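The instructor's notes for this session suggest beginning with a concrete chain rather than abstract definitions. Hand out the sequence below and ask the class to guess, before any prediction is shown, which regions might be ordered.
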Amino acid sequence: MTALDDTESDPTDALSAVPVAGSRRGLPAVGKLKFCYGPMDCGKSTLALQIDHNHARQGRHGVLLVRHDRSGAPQISSRMGISRRALEVSEDTDLRLLVRHRWARGEHVDYVIVDEAQFLSPAQVEHLAELADDAQLDVYCFGIATDFRGLLFPGARRLFELADELQPVQVEVLCWCGLPGRFNARVRDGEVLRAGDTVLVADTETETVETSQSALADTEVVTVRYQVLCRRHFRVGDLGPRAGQHGQLRLT
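After discussion, reveal the predicted structure:
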């Protein structure tokens, strides 16, 4: 335990260094927790970067966090080609202490942006709610609601339970049949997978194919990608006429 964290033995003291109310340029001392969600390709990361840009232009200072970005790097990246460095959140990161350490260095924090928030633990989502309530920070989370089985991610479920605002991203993603796509199907060799690890970070692109270490150990190349489907075609596993294409695989 360092001198900086000499109060960490008390779990209720994680926000003891909260700046005094009213230090946010006269704005009301009210924070909010917002969750923007949608399927792959709907523009969640682009929206996260746009919100950060808008706040920064007004002189506000933010912290950008990410968990398992598709690029494999500590950044928030959009499929449109824009990106910005972010702090990678690990499984045991205490998000309250992360902000508190910034205050200890004399840095001002007005807002927090979290991309790939579905991969947060329920406890980390509670940390974000505490930052909004007790530190009056605006917290914006972006992520996918359901996993490849159509079940809520634990982090997304807790965000649905605690967030002040829930906003589906309005950019419509279509299934191959033309109906709105809601489900992120995990596809291997033209087949929709129904079982496996919940966290398997892959992409929908087709230019690059990477193989997992387990596949190399078994001398078998495994190619995995994701495809957004409507409910009907997700249920029956129908990938449409382009089902033979492969995508990018990146294991975490």
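Then share the key points. The longest helix spans residues 44-57. The helical segments are 44-57, 95-104, 122-134, 154-162, 213-217, 231-236.
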